[in-house]
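Hi! If you just cloned this repository, the fastest way to understand the data is to look at a raw example. We've pasted two of them here, unedited. The first protein comes first, obviously.
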Amino acid sequence: MDTETQLVEENPRKGGLRTMPFIIVNESFERVASYGLQANLIIYLMTFYNMTAATGTSILGIWTALSNGLAIVGAIISDSYCGRFKAVAIGSISTLIGMIILWLTAMIPQLKSLPCPQFQHVCNGTTAFQLAVLFSSFGFMSVGAGFIRPCSIIFGVDQLEKKGKPENKRLVDSYFNWYYASIGVSTILAVTTVVYIQERYGWKVGLGIPVILMFLSVSMFLIGSPWYIKVKAKESLLIGLLQAVVAAFRKRNTRLPLTDCDDYYRWPLESEVLTPSNDLRCLNRACMIEDPQRDLNPDGSASNPWNLSSLEQVESLKAIVRVLPMWSTGFMIYVTMNQFSFSVLQAKTMDRHIIPQFELPAASFSVFMIFALTIWITFYDRVLVPLLSKYTGRPRGLSPVTRMGIGLLVSCMSMALSAITESIRKQKAIEEGHEDDPHALVNMSAMWLVPQYLLLGVAEAAHAVGQIEFFYSLFPKSMSSIASAMYTIGTAVSSLVGSILVSGVDWLTSTGGKTSWLSSNINKGHLDYYFWLLAFLSLLNFFYFVMVCRLYETGNDGSSRLSHVAEDKECDYRLLSES
């Protein structure tokens, strides 16, 4: 009997629907607080830390990469050591500490530099201590996100999944619907209401609101502690994959045959995998038994899992290696979506009035991307799938790979449209005599920016769901959570690549005393050139995607052919990354 079942039977009054308000409120408030900070933070960094637009964007990109990357670490620690309850609790408290530190930078003048206008555009330097305080707040929030986001949703499942009660399957499905609905509402509130408060009432109030929300989030989660089912930690699948890599490396010089060998380690003994696959045969060394007396315990288990992995672990590792080329094609689309900081600067110089009495905050335009993403997923699932399935013969309409390609092309179109819009905006700014004043309003509606956000939303919806389904169709059921992990790692890598790209473009285009393309004065810079560069790189990435598709089609091993990928298993939407 597994640990989860023991816990449920020993504590029949724990878990269930009574715990859902605590978990969902915890996640919702954390989302509102976190996204409310991130959306508008580029303005705070440029105003009170005198950072250039390029530097601020690079720092925010590194912060996003760290938060997503630590999600994998948090998942491993929660699965293998502390359990999900402690992981969410530690993450929530860490996030609260980070937000308090960031709020203190707004409250205490000594923790930030004075804005440039007070020195007649001669900026005073930011001290190392001030930057250390700022970065420590980012660090605490990254650690918090790394623990909360991979564990919160599954912790909710722990409260509802009770063996012997099949009716709980409906409760779990309902929970997922409410959970993701709360995330959507929280994100919209964050990029609208919280951002509006920051612009209307200033940063002292604007950064204080997330602190209050996060305090409520921590409090609600801890109050529900007596009623939670707390599943104990067990071995992590990610640790098992790492053990297979180490075991194969340690046995790289082994002289055992790589084929036609029956001495493979299987655990548990009733394994369904009979023989290892023929591709990536070098990894088969990891599950080869060299000396049964040394390698195995009396019960048949491996004496040292870092020297001997099971055949299942090796095949799982091979499944990941097979999808790496296709996984890498998704980096560029998330690089393009990490350029919101520059779009915020664009919107700040444009007329943002929706009606004469209301002006939409510059950082709130990303809400149009969220609307487009949500509407597209619903429209495709409910309208297009029934129509397309009649013509394609596929239960999911278009294949996962086709949808991924559509997403890549639409993201390329979005960057091209962004470049055209920026060139028009800059030309108007110059004609109106605002070249030397980056804060002047241009006689141009900010609604011109909406189409590029809509296209990015459709691009992410098409690509993200297609990519998850692609992984889901290749991986065995036991590896379904790895699909979400790879998506998260991909966004982390993309954020890091985007940060490096911004820094590189800023450095290269400012050599010789020239004005950088990514100048803080976007009326003097060439932000349109940068968007054209992203469009060109996105187009190159699409051609790379086509090459990878052909590589899968022409593979010698049937396991890596695209026809196997196109089985059209329905995507388990709970695998979609919460970030």
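Ok, and the second one:
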Amino acid sequence: MCAELKIHMRSNKRRVLPNSKELIVNYNKRTPPETISEHNDPFRVDWTEIPNDPNDALGFLTGKEALRIPDRSIPRYKLFWPLRCGWYNESEYREKKDLYNDIATIIEEAIKTQLSLRRKRDWVQYGCVFVVPDLYERHYVSQTLEMLMRDLGFGKVCFIQESLAATCGAGYTTACVVDVGAQKTSICCVEEGMCIENSRINLKCGGADVTETFIRMMLYDHFPYADINLKRRYDFLLAEELKSKFCTMNEGEISPQLFDFHLRASGQDTRKYAFKTYDEVLLAPQGYYQPTIFDNSQKLKNRRKLVDRSYDLYEGGPNDPVSSAQSAVISLISPIVPVNGQTNGETSNGHTAPAPIKLAPNLFQKINDSERTPASTVGSPAPDDDDTPVPIGETNTATDTLAPSVRDDVLPVIALDTAILTSISHGARLDDRKTRDFLSSVMVVGGGAQIPGFYMFLEERLKELRPEFAKDIVIGTPPRELDPQGVIWKGGSVFGKLRGTNDSWIGKTEYDRLGARLLVYKCMWAW
């Protein structure tokens, strides 16, 4: 990547110093930190206060307070993240109920502290709009519904998919929504207020991977704070700050540059470090397009240890939603797949290994135009539509391409530009007009995309891959000066006020009678 960057910079007539790397390595090696006493530091950190008597200490802390607990606090605290990469974080928990309780606790404390709704008994007067992933897992949604109704006690609840919420918040009617988060990136085409099911893609990489890769690159160049450890709370916050301040995707800013930062740790004097960077500030965010540089080794650890996939009560097969675009992404990563899920043998990690094989279908071929029927007999017959779900057991290229075990064993991580074009090709289904519509309204939201030059770089990459549509490709941002990190929640609040959403609210009485079965009738998409 370094060599390619030099070639690209020279072709654009940019100056490239031959010994840039040696300059920054030598500077970083010989520059000691400057110590600043805590009372002379105007930006000193307010650490979370822990009572002197351990018996008076709180049983738990959430949010920013949890990240600002001193490392040597008495009693000691352990930090839990109940969600990782958009999935339940099963590797850190022994019991399923502890995982669910932590999620409920985090939401409950956020409502009490951020919204000042201190009395939980008053929450029955409120309705809750809950944003779920486009490519969700059924267990997650049904468990969330139970938590909102039983544990938090809301009067009514409705669900909205995140890409639809983004378009509601930004005022788009048709868009390809790209949500770049901290640990996952989701892509989905939205048309006339509906998510196109077969265009949904969920990648397990995001801004946190860029942070980790940036720090690894800096350590390779003798970063002066060599003891940085992202498992320490204050080091993790420092690394996020360094990424947001110094990383860029503007090629014109690449040259040996001098920066500084302050290390603030509880019970220690502040240390001011000076360091130099060269191309690391651009190569780390380029990992979105070269994801092999990210460390993905632990992301599938203990997957399905506590929470199994959802199964159809009548047919017995898995019934989590599927997407032909996501199947195509998995096929790109692991092109040899089992036939109809028949496998034999056992791998070292306990998963079944595929025996009979077939090659995955062409990514951009039209997916099965045969007439489809809904998986459930509830409601009226489904339209003759490519996005109508297929009964389990029927042959379908979109859903039978990959066996369930392969979906759990293969981590969906590919280049962002390839993923966007895959989503659009499956959403437009070879319709040139729709393809142009989606390419002209690619909307990027989320905190992971808040890197200078991100939108322009993405636009250039898409134009290189699809030159025939170059004049149509436009990367849009949320209008009206909306913060891209909050546009989805803005859309959720708009959705909750619309008159047309009355049918999607789930009330307490009907939930007590029917439970999670209500989701078949109440969701604004095919549950």
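That's it. A detail worth noticing about the second one: The CA atoms of residues 53 and 74 lie 8 Å apart.
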